[in-house]
Amino acid sequence: MNIVIEKNPSSRRLSDLGVMSWPKWSCQPGKYALVFEERETCYLVKGKVKVYLKGSSEFVEFGAGDLVTIPKGLSCTWDVSLFIDKHYKFDPPTSP
């Protein structure tokens, strides 16, 4: 699935990345079909989610305290079990 999860990164790592200055996004528990048009890096402040690749029963689970990189082009369903509050950033689009 190529989702990279860094469990409990250090405060220095988060500071070096500028995570706390990234935009925030939140959602209630539920299922959400998502397509990632660009690579996203996010840091979960709160919550827990299972991410299912489209058309698959395989999942990756992550939650509060995890720094996660989601690849460009991923189609998936987020099954959110605990309210999500996250900081996120997208990689800038590449020019042709």
From TrEMBL:
Residues 15-88 form the (S)-ureidoglycine aminohydrolase cupin domain. It comes from the Eukaryota. PANTHER family: OS02G0620400 PROTEIN, OS04G0445200 PROTEIN. This is RmlC-like cupin domain superfamily.
